[in-house]
Write a structure and sequence with these properties.
single chain, mainly beta, 5-stranded antiparallel β-sheet, 5 strands, 40% strand
Length: 78
């Protein structure tokens, strides 16, 4: 499937998506937010998935633009 230029997707549609970092660690997108000290950057709240497939209770926040080397799998039902 080829994604056309100027396509868009709501950040809400990305909640629950599977993220895999460059080291193979897996995470789920929990939420999005902005830091009021820097409203020009969107941040993403993620939860790590352990070796047994369970979500960690701890939430980690990252700047969304820092995930350029990560892969994403869009899913439904999370």
């Amino acid at each position: 499937m080829k994604i056309e230029q100027n396509s868009s997707l709501s950040l809400n549609d990305l909640k629950g998506a599977l993220l895999i970092n460059e080291h193979g660690a897996e995470f789920r997108i929990h939420d999005f937010y902005i830091d009021l000290d820097n409203v020009s950057e969107v941040c993403v709240a993620i939860k790590e998935i352990d070796n047994e497939g369970n979500l960690d209770d701890e939430i980690t926040g990252l700047v969304f633009s820092s995930l350029k080397k990560w892969t994403i799998q869009l899913t439904r039902g999370f």
